[in-house]
Amino acid sequence: MSFFWLLITIFCIAWYFTMTFYVGVRGFFDIKEMLLALKSNDASNTKEE
Amino acid sequence: MLSHFSFLDAGIVGVYLLLTIIAGLAVRKYVGKVEHYLVAGREMNLYLGIASLAATEFGIVTCMYTAQNGYKMGFAGATPGILQTIAMLVVGITGFCIKPLRDAGVMTIPELFEKRFGSTVRWLSGVVIVLGGLLNMGVFLRTGGEFLLLTAGFNPDAFAQSHQLEIMMSVLLIIVAVYTVLGGMLSVLVTDFLQFIVMSLGMLVVTVLILGKIGWTPLVEAVQKHHGSAGFNPFLMERGWEFVLFNLCLQFAVVLTWQAVIQRVLSAKSTKTGRQIYAHTSFFFTARFLIPGLWGIAALATLTPEQVGGNTLYAMPKFLSMFLPSGLMGILIAGMLAADMSTDSAYMLTWGGVIYNDILAPFRKKREWSEKKGVLMNRFIVAMIGLFLLFYGLWYPLKGNLWDYLGVTGTIYLSSMSVLLIACCYWKDANNWGAMGSIILGALFPIGFLVLQQLPATAEWAQEIGPYKSGISSYIVSGLAMIIGSLLKKHLVLNKQNP
User: Fold this and answer.
1) Is B268 helix (H, G, I), strand (E, B) or coil?
2) Nearest-CA distance B332 → chain A (Å)
């Protein structure tokens, strides 16, 4: 049974390491996109008023 | 106690805190509507969603109870994490319940219930969600403070007398409250992203160091020596079947209805993005239990029972305070502070959102509040939750396993809300009689268990019943109440009206 936990631990560390870097890069662009979308929504709402 | 916390570590922590505050406050100018404040204007994309969900669901409290599980149960203590991964993956891939929920365009789960079960059920759901959620979150601050002080090398008796813990908790909460009150979900998302990176780096570095310095074999041997085969296989533990069954119910209910988790689906750009966030984050929940679990096992392998003392919750931080070198200590503490702050901010906003959206809904019926008043009210509620946490966190005496306490308090609403959500989405005969019965009976068992546990006359009896049986009963009774109540109304009332 300890072999099962060894496999899970190795996979876990490798997956988490990759995920941290990938999400770290792509997440930054998501924030930029989200704030731009909110800004443009706000601008179009002000125009309508 | 020997600790390697130095000025370098303090500097790392200081820089991190400063960056978080700046990032959290910088986005407050984008908050113009209640929808921006509670669900970030539904503009959250996949990777930000993954970072936010992972950061929210990993706090110091998580690290403490999963490490305690590792210390007390060995590798088998990570079973709830594997069950949550399965639940998250199944729900993410199939869209079970979360698809109709996100498609409905609501901001909270009770809002969806109103469409099906009426306004009373919405209000009552809001009350049990907030009750269970705040009781659950009540232990976060104290546990977080204990971890930070123990890791930095302070003596538990000394900090109990000098109120260092209370002062540190208050400062931390004020920092979190300031950016959460002002920026709402937008501040939570941006700081969550930063906190995800810092927290993950801290966790990975510490784990690799433990495996490199102590090695895998001594960890396995320690588990075998202290727990035998039960340390690897949860079914061989005492009350093993109860433990697995309770956690299976709990994890599915968490994935479906834990408001802090669901808020990520509701803030997502689309239903598809919400489902992808679930599927892509699913394995994180195994890591969430296994990585600190390994730290707890490392404490089991290296510390004597005298070094650990009477409280197994302190084993892991005591181990880290002696194990980590200077510099790494700062990275770990910054990482854990990051984890704690992201959880506190997201949870304060989550329960605040339910209070505003559902419990205060009757007050907005006569005259709709302006967006400005809505945002102001939300900010006030979040500040009040912060105050509540400060006082509740200081006086509640935690008894037994931390994970069990969190499971039991969460069940106050998870049992009934998961039943209501499934019935609301997929059972056409479900109605408000069943919903009311489910909410009341679902909350009765865990609250009753908590009361029995605290009273000296019944504490022993509560221990005999155990948290797992009480929790499983809550899910079963809640489901039965929904079925019986709904069928009863159908036969007694609806059939009378249409003979």
Assistant:
1) strand
2) 16
